[in-house]
Design brief:
The protein is α/β, with parallel strands linked by helices. The chain has three domains: 71 residues, no CATH class; 81 residues, Winged helix-like DNA-binding domain superfamily/Winged helix DNA-binding domain (Arc Repressor Mutant, subunit A); 46 residues. It is 33% helix and 14% strand. Helix 6 crosses helix 7. It is elongated. It binds a DNA duplex (13 and 13 nucleotides) through helix 6, helix 7 and strand 6. Belongs to the MGMT family. Pfam families: Ada_Zn_binding, DNA_binding_1. Its EC number is 2.1.1.63.
DNA sequence: GGGCGGGCGGGAG
DNA sequence: ACTCCCGCCCGCC
């Protein structure tokens, strides 16, 4: 390590100076306006264009072009109504956004969820893990965050998701096989799911037979019907279950990938 | 099979 | 602070 000699008389301790300089060095202001104002851009995605607001903290707000009637002023106004801050046009999209929307892999994106409560952030963090082409029930999200009875509150939190599509709350569906409500309306939710090849017709058909889980009698593993692994079960080995207890009685254990019916015990907290 | 109450977080008053 | 009310729900009648 290089030590630069400094005269000691009257100046602050060297380690303090170094700490201050290090803080500046690791967090350089890219530009003053980028630090104060959020920026916005419009990007093309396979499911339609998106308006995206972001700062150096991450992506903070998303609307579909469809939802704002293809009108950027509607987007800007909706941002201002929620955040009470202005928005500047960006020179370029935030890092990683273009490949993320092109491939549908939005998980590595950085988000600025600072306005949200801990509960809402927990809900969105879990939701962000749901792979494209798969769905999970609201109750699953509730269990995953350790609040198994807060099912409806999960819906409320997802309804306030500031970054829909990128944090895929459209992949959280009702337990009876219908997609359920959505910020941009149920039909937008259904369209997004179909675009990522979720077989909603099959899910609905299974649900009508009271089948909400699928297992393979060759592996003894049970999954949500849209799980990547469930979709590989051949017809003759596929077993349907109404609930995870029934599957367990038949000797099936939950898939480690889609984690159906994870028992979490009592809710955490007050 | 839909209606009903349980359940819970958050915001309004 | 406390109550009331609403909401992308759930599962049992």
């Amino acid at each position: 390590m290089v030590i630069i000699d400094r005269d000691g008389g009257g100046s602050p301790p060297v380690d303090e100076l170094e700490a201050a300089l290090a803080a500046l060095a690791v967090d350089p202001p890219a530009s003053l306006s980028a630090r104060i104002f959020a920026q916005w851009c419009r990007v093309t995605s396979p499911t339609g264009d998106l308006y995206v607001a972001f700062s150096d903290q991450g992506i903070s707000y998303v609307r579909t072009a469809e939802a704002v009637g293809d009108d950027e002023t509607v987007f800007l106004e909706s941002f201002r109504a929620r955040f009470e801050r202005p928005l500047l046009a960006a020179d370029r999209p935030p890092p990683g956004l273009l490949p993320a929307v092109r491939t549908g892999r939005t998980r590595p994106l950085r988000f600025d969820l600072g306005q949200l409560t801990d509960f809402e952030r927990a809900v969105l963090t879990v939701t962000a893990q749901i792979p494209a082409g798969q769905t999970r029930p609201y109750g699953w999200v509730a269990k995953e965050i350790g609040r198994p009875k807060a099912v409806r509150a999960v819906g409320t939190a997802l309804g306030r998701n500031p970054v829909p599509v990128l944090i895929p709350c459209h992949r959280v569906t009702r337990s009876d096989g219908v997609p359920g409500e959505y910020v941009f309306g149920p039909q937008a939710k259904e369209r997004l799911l179909r675009a990522e090849a979720v077989n909603l017709d099959e899910v609905r058909e299974l649900a009508s037979e009271r089948i909400f889980y699928l297992g393979s009698d060759t592996t003894g593993i049970v999954c949500f019907p849209t799980c990547h692994h469930a979709r590989r079960i051949t017809a003759k080995h596929r077993k349907g279950f109404r609930n995870i207890e029934q599957a367990a009685e038949h000797g099936y254990r939950p898939c480690l990938h889609c984690r159906p019916g994870i028992a979490t015990g009592d809710a955490v907290g007050a």
